[in-house]
Every structure is written in structure tokens, then in C-alpha cells.
Amino acid sequence: MAYQAEISRKNPGCFLFLVDQSESMEDPFGGGEAGRRKAEELATILNKLIHNLCIRCAKSDSIYDYFHVGVLGYSEASCKPAFGGELSGRSLVPISELASKPLRIEDKVKKSDDGAGGVMDQTVKFPVWFDPYWKGGTPMCAALKEATKITQTWCQEHPNGFPPIVINITDGEATDGDLVAEARKLAAVSGEDGSVLLFNIHLSSTAGPSIELPGNGNKLPDQHAKQLFEASSTLTPFMVARATELGMPAEENSRGFIFNAQPLHVIHFLDIGTRPANVHLR
Amino acid sequence: MGTSCGEARHAANECDIKVFCCPKLGNSLEEYEDAWAHRQTRTPVGIRVAVADGATESSFAKLWAVLLAESYVRSELAGAEFFARLKPARRLWRRRLAGRPLPWFASEKAEQGAFAAFLGVEIDAHKNRWTALAVGDCCLMQVDDVGKGMRVLEMFPLQKSSQFTMSPYLIGSRSDSESLNERVQISKGSLRDGDMLLLATDAMAAWLLRQHEEGRPLWKWLYRKLGTPESFAAMVAYGRKNGLRNDDFTLVRVIHHDSPVEAKER
Fold first, then answer.
1. N or C end of chain A: smaller count of CB under 10 Å?
2. What is the mean pLDDT of residues B6-31?
3. CATH classification of the domain holding A230
């Protein structure tokens, strides 16, 4: 049976993010507060996803390399690794290295319980790996092709591992070819435990209710969303169960597609051991 | 204190107790995050046994599991009120971390607290009764020594292998009174001469229940053959080829006798 491989430090999982940095990402985001750009929403999502992955893998005073993570940015006419600073040019990086090399760590103040019925200000660390960026066209097909190459190499190097998960975050308007055809080639890359899973996070300028993990494309608002839904993989049974546990509306045919919503729960779709039900996700 | 793997033997008033444990395959002994403890009690005269299973996805979970198991065997509370008196254990957990320089991710994870599943069993040797207290998916199984196949008298708090999940509600090392009371499960039962109580952490318990459900119960083997760390290792090796999930394993076997016995090899 596919998608059963245990994720461990010896046999890590792989998350590869494809991020749309085209100029259309400058437009307002339809699913959040007024005046917020899609590029800003994307940077927030990506920083939160990596932040949460680091916390997931943190173990006492160290961090276990349960995952290797890559980010490819696509804009103008090319697609390239999008890590900055010390990680510039790297395609896939172990989570421990990512945790220790953000671009910067910001201090933010949040309200928290003071343990005596009151509220107090608490300073929390906010690591930043990405800043908003937009320029030129949307070579999404080039990004899918590059992801195909990277995941082929990963599967060769980790033949028995859990297949890579590719998460594409975009406003859905590819300018360089047939998105669905390229997505199928990517999803055909496979190892012993199954083939690559491609999830799409659609940040649209169209206002409207968010849609998470739909089983069909009937309620999707436009052609771009329908195409991205078409390009998304079906969730594994474990993922459907985990999504349901986390309060997402998942069903048997659910696809890894999210419209105008934060996809933070997605990183919990891979199992690395007992997760306390009473830890609230950020 | 139950922190090392292998075998521990103890002859309490009316019980033979043996503990077996081993870390997840691929992990070192230092990374084993279960804990166990047992102790003779005076009120009532008998014994207390506990197992706790630190959650993989939490930090400093081993320390918390040890504190829970030790707190229980040193306590005289056998009901849900035990969990209301965990303040000293929580304080100790925080104190062990205080002042420790931690990178941002470790510090944030420690803020969430550590989490563990817990099962404690108090055996009243005079009344031949047991009281069990659980939060999470560590399980108690009671099997009698009657008949050829032996009978399962109790499975607590889970009764079927399908009830185990990867996200149980667990006890946190930070104060989490919000809904803990609703999650506490209590059961009581009586003991007859020769009854076997097994306390197991989740993966081992789930596998033993599944073997039972599929008509390949291991009770008799556990009762008569399991005796050394080597025999436990052989069972784990067999299990790993037959559906036993890779995890830390802890199994405490208690065999009850109506009258006091000397410590002896069974």
C-alpha cells in the first residue's frame, strides 16, 4: 500500500514549496483584510509554514531533521531557489539548518495568560525567511518542471521514503503553458511508497468564502481555481483523517486544494509520531 | 525509578511485577520517552503501578512522563483528584528547564509544555481489588488464568485496536485544567489468584489487542514465557514483522497472588 513509509531522521520527508512572485501578486488579496497584497499574504503563509514545521520538529533543546524543505520562486521568465541569506541558491535544506538560518528574527508582542486570571504582554520571536516580492510574468509551468527534476532526484536518493509533497502557492494565472499537463508529469514522479503529491494554495483577488480540500470543483469561483483544483492530488486516507481531526472539511475524494485560506494545517498531514490533541495549532 | 530499559523485578506483597521496555527502532536509549514506576503502598496495603508515554511531538516529554509516573506511585489519591494535585510535578518540570539557554524554536516548543498519556493502577491486596486511572491511550488488560486460552476480563480505557489514534488527548506539563476532568477515565475490578494485569503504552497495547481480535492472542505466552529482556526483544522482533508500529514500547506485567509470595523466578 502506498503512502505508508515512516518519516524519521533516517528517512526524512520532503516539502517543496513553489511560490508565485509574478507582478499580479501585487494585486489585493480577496480573502483577507482590505489593502493587503497577495504577495504579502504569500510571504506570511510561507513564513508561518516554515515556522510551524520548525516547531513540529523541535525536540527538547535541538531539532530533528524529519523534513527537508525547499522553496522555488517563479517570476519574470524563470524559476529559481528562493532562499536568501546564507541559504541562497539551495534547493532543499534540512529543517534544522532552516531553523538556524532565517533572514532575521523579529520580536513581536502578544497578549498571553498571566496564570492569575489576567493578561500580560509577552515578547515572542518571529523568524522571517521571506519578504514579499513581485515582478514580471508567471512561469508556473517552468516551476512545475523544476519541481519534477528536484523530486526525481529526491526519490532516487530516498527510494523507500514517503513521497515528496509539493505545495504551489499562487494566484493561478500561468503564463507559460499547460499547467494541468505539467502538474500530471510532476505527480507521476514516484518512489517505492507512491508518487509525488501536489497541493495548490490559490490566493485569489476574487472575494468570497474560503474553500478547503474540496472533493469536486463545482463551487470554485473561476477558471483559474478550477484549473488548479484539476492539477491537485487526492489526499491519502491518513491525510483525510488528520484533516478531519483538525477541523477541516475533508472527505474521501478531497484534493489538496485550498482557496483563499491559510493552509497551516497542511504540514500536519505527514505523521511523525503522537501529536497531542490538546495542542492548539497557531 | 522507571527510566532504564530492560527488566525490573519486584515482589510486592501479593504481586510479581516485571517491566519490559525498549526504544523506537532507530532511536537511542536516551531518546526513549516512556516511563514506568511501581511502589508498595500502606494505605491500602498493596501496590501502585504506573506507565506514562511522552508524546513524540512535544519537548522534554520524557521528564514529564517520569514525573507523572513517580507522582502517582507516591500519591495516595486513586481518583481524578490525583490530576488536580500535579502542581509540584509541574513546578519541577518548569524548574528543570528554567535558565536553560534555548534556541528560539526550542524555547517556543517548551512554552507549549510537554505531553504524556498516563495509566495508573492501584492494587488493594487485602480486598483483592484494583482501581485504574487513565488519560490518553496507555492501556490496562486483565487476563485470568482459567482455561486453556485464558480469558480477557478487562481492557481499559480502550477496548479495540481501532480506537487508537495518532492524536489522543494527553496530560500537559503546563496547567491545562480546561477539560482534563472530562478526559479522565476510571475503572475498578476484582482480582483472583493468578490473574495477570498488563499495563502497556499505546503501540504495544494496540498490537496486543489486534492479535487478540484476530484470533492470535498472546496472553498465554505473555503469562508463561515472557520472562527476560531477551524474550521481550524476541516478541518485539516478531511484532515488527507482524504489524507492530515502530514506537517506544513499555509493558508492565503484574501477576496477582492471593497470598504473599517470595520473590522467585516464574
1. N
2. 78
3. 3.40.50.410
Closest listed residue to residue A21, CA positions, set A85, A71, A68 = A71
Across the interface, of B104, B105, B170, the residue whose CB is closest to A278 is: B170
**pLDDT tens digits along A227-254:** 999 999 999 999 999 999 888 889 999 9
- The answer, for B26 touching chain A at a CB cutoff of 8 Å, is yes
Residue A162, domain member (yes or no): yes
ipTM: 0.88
CA dihedral A250, A251, A255, A260 (to 10 degrees): -30
Cβ contacts from A onto B, under 8 A: 89
The length of chain A, given as a count of residues:
282
Domain definitions of chain B by residue range = 6-256
Could you tell me the CA-to-CA distances from B39 to A215, B49, B169, B261 in Å, in that order? Answer: 54, 7, 27, 16
Quick check: is A184 in a domain? Answer: yes
Please identify which residue in the block is written with the cell numbers 481501532: B162
- Whole-prediction pTM value? 0.89
Chain B: give the shortest CA distance to residue A81, in Å. 24
Residue B49 forms contact with A (CB below 8 Å): no
User: Within an 8 Å CB–CB cutoff, is residue B173 touching chain A?
Assistant: no
pLDDT digits (tens, 9 = 90+) for B231-248: 999 999 999 999 999 999
Domain B6-256: give its CATH architecture.
4-Layer Sandwich (3.60)
